[in-house]
Every structure is written in C-alpha cells, then in structure tokens.
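ok here's Insulinase family protein:
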Amino acid sequence: MKKHLFSLTALLLFGTLANAQQVEFEEFDLDNGLHVILHQDNSAPVVITSVMYDVGGKDYEPGRTGFAHFFEHLLFEGTKNIGRGEWFTIVSSNGGSNNANTSQDRTYYYEVFPSNNLELGLWMESERLMHPIINQIGVDTQNEVVKEEKRLRFDNAPYGGFLAAIGENLFKVHPYKEKLIGEMEDLDAATLEEFNAYFKKYYVPNNAVLVVAGDIDVAKTKKMVKDYFGPIPRGADVVRNFPKETPVTETIKANYYDNNIQIPAVIAAYRTPGFKERESYILDMISSYLSGGKSSVLYKKMVDEKKMALQAQAINVGQMDYSVFAILALPLGDVPLDSLLAEMDEEIVKLQNELISERDYQKLKNQFENQYVNSNSSVSGIAENLATNYLLKGDVNLINNEIDIYRSVTREEIRDVAKKYLSSNQRLELDYLPKKDNQ
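and the structure:
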C-alpha cells in the first residue's frame, strides 16, 4: 500500500510540474528592429533584464579572432552615463547581480534585480547598446583581463585545450575551426578603429533580442522598453555567408600536447547537424545513453566493471551550423588509448545495429523530462531559453514544446542516427597527450 501511495504521489507531483512548465510570453518588435519578449511571473519579487546578440566566436575577420569574447568584457567598461568601473558597483548596490557569456554563436548579457529596480536594468542595457565608451584605455585593460583568463582557463588548465584541438582538426573552412577566446596576437594587433567597427556592425538592435522576465507589469514594462530602447538607431543587416564543410569520409588522425597533464586521453569527434535539426536532439539522447551518470553504458562498463578507465564520456556540443559529438576516455594505469577507443566503439556499433532496451529508452525519456523541468525552474533559465529559442532556433515556443521532440524520438531513430553519423570513417581520432620537453 505504501508503495502504491508513493507512486501516486510521485505521479501527481510530476503532473503538477509538467503543468507548471507552460511558459506564457508576449512578443513585439520596436521600429528599429529590436525583438522584445516579456514573461510575467509574479511569484517572487525578482526580475531579469537580458539581451542576447547574434554575434559569437565564429564572427571574425581573418587575423582578428576572439572579438566577440573580447566584447563580452569590453562592454562592461562603461558608457557616457556610467563611469568606468562603476557597472558592477551600481548593480550590487541595488541588490542585483549580473554576468555575460559568449559561445561560438551568440553573446548574452543579463542583470537580475529586485523587481522594483526593473527600470534600472533596462536603462543599463540600453546604455550598453547606445552609449558605450570604447577607447584605448578600456581596450588595453580588457586585453590584459582576457590574457589572464586564457592563462587560467586554457593555458594552465588540465585538458583546457581539448575543445580547441577538436575544432582546429575537425573543421577546415568554417570559422568554428578557431578558438572562441581567439589568438592573443590578433587582439594585440587590432586597432581601436577595428573594435569600433565591430561594435557598429554587430551590436545593433536589429541583431539582438531583449527578454524581460519575472515580477513585471506588462503594460508598464512595454512603455519603459520603448522609452529606453526605441531611440537607438537601427544598424545595417548582418549578412553571413560562411563556407560549407565537405563531409568527412576518411578518419582524421591527430595528436595534441598539453603540458598540464600527466594522464593522456583519447577522443573521437564527429561533425554532426546543427542544433535546430531533429537529428541533433537524437544525438543529445545518444550522449546521455552512453554517459549520463554512473549507471550509463560507458561508465558502468569501462570504469566500474572492466576498470580500464578513470573516466569515459560522450558529449554533444550543440552549435548552430554544425554540432560536435565526441566520445572520450582517460586510461587507468597503462591501458592503451587504442583499447579504450575499441571499447567505446563496441558500444557505438551496438547502437548502430540493435535497438536499445525498452527500460533504457524509458530512462532516457525520464532524464530529458527532468532536464526540461529544471531548465525552466527559474526566471533566469526561462529568460535565456526564450532568447536562445528566438535568436538561434527561430521558434520561441520551443520553450513549451521542445520536450515533445525528445518524447517523440523512437528507438529506431536512435539506431538510425547512430548509424548515419557515428561511423569511424567520419570522425577525428585525437590522442590528447602530456607534453614532453622536446615537443
């Protein structure tokens, strides 16, 4: 009886969570092309003001990599009405927090405030867009900040270069081949005029989406948005024409040396469809099936049972134009890297030729249901999802129905997608090795 009662309680709780996931929102455009999304949630006196720009690491001119990430830092330097170094002080002194992040595809800025400071958040983001101060002092300051970040996160971090190593070997012509953080010599060589030109090209209202979410009055918020963002002039439309990659038909073999590690790793990486495609969702599920927790296939087999690996993992790095699916492992003791790759390949081959069990299939769907609930459990998560779905995926309502894509994936599709994209002749095989003195 207790077991049945627990199951009923869990079912009711899940039903409540599922119903709570319906996210209501309202959209409109300003005359200057800025797209605005409002989400009202008056359950807590918190509001987030956020702007996502359609500019990322892939947007660079030859010899000028890393500009989007650089601007993530530079646009906190100050504006005509916010003194240099005052941005974070203003936010914290008004009970708020803020941050920004950059990917290969977009840049995202946000502030979280008590809801009585909504207008302050809108003013600050409009200031960032309308009145930034881009001068040599700020450029020089942030150049040193970015160099220190590179030293901490990449140059001196164990395995910090593995994504860059995949990118430079798996992509030949598409700008994903370059590091997101860029090359420091490119930033050193760039002129102030080049930084101003980059801002003028990409940081314009018609290349962005503003999301305001939380404890708001919709009518009042609309007026404030129009007052603060309406006067900002429209920019020229951003036109992209990135070269297409030819399919990988023969295994690419490469080595990468990292002087911060003692234990090597083996990585097999595949170039896969962009994250808007249904097949990319299926590859998400395949990565979770292979390594989603300690009960997953690779961990249980290679770490627990055979004790061959310290770690075994599959990841699906979703990107707009091409995604990257990778499997990787770190050996335990003197286990050869080839042996680790063979063990991982064995599981890939099973996926390509057999249907996963009904039990594993239900487990996968439960995992993605849980991820979906968690991703929309805060106004901050909702705001970023709304922005991403509009700007990069072209469908804001994915925030409500994206889970239906995962729910609709069949075991047969999992098999077929593994067979289509995860063959050994379609991949990069990368030995990630400790650097020796003579290398």
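+1. The two ends are 67 Å apart (CA to CA).
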